[in-house]
Amino acid sequence: MTAVPLRGPVLGRTDQAGAAVPGRRFFDAVNRVWMVKVFPGEFYVTAQPDEVLVTILGSCVSTCIRDPRTGIGGMNHFMLAQSGSQSWGGDPESTRYGNFAMEKLINELLKAGCRRESLEIKVFGGGNVTDTRNLIGTQNCAFVLDYLASEGLPVAAQDLGGQSPRRIHYYPASGRVVRRMLGGAETSAVAREEIAYAGRLKGRRIGGEIELFE
Questions:
Q1: One-letter-per-residue 3-state SS of 76-117
Q2: Has residue 204 been placed in a domain?
Q3: Domain range for residue 113?
Q4: pTM greater than the 0.85 cutoff
């Protein structure tokens, strides 16, 4: 298979396809890096050594994957384990679902020239911050570990579960991850955001993929 060169960061999305998100990418003058926000239902792949991928996770899970040989890496952010597991409607081939989000991220990395056997994988999130009765976070944690095991892909690091949200900074070029646990008012804010996002998805068929910052 001939690898397709990665011309620029690739952003996969599930809502408002084709529309830029204000404030997604901004320069951190202190650390001299570009910070890129990855929102729920998205994945992002980059070959840029000065980009850091940032996300906030409640019950959602993010998988951070890179190939140390190439320096190419990416992150996804999914809200439900598998299409059909919840009736949030719309498109079963949507990156808000873990099964599709994992496939899309891995496939984009392989298309960019990464080797499957070289992938370094780290997983985060899955806190039960919105509804402890349904344990959505627990379901997401179990899904991502089962998925990777079934694909024969080892996990290099994980920080999953609990009841608190997390802020993740991922450096694809080096594989470094900075994790900060959130609490108090931040936990309530993350829970509200997840509930609002779920509400926006109800009854909407969404899909699409765009490429930014070529």
A1: EEECECCCCCCCCCCCCCCCCEHHHHHHHHHHHHHHCCCCHH
A2: yes
A3: 10-211
A4: no
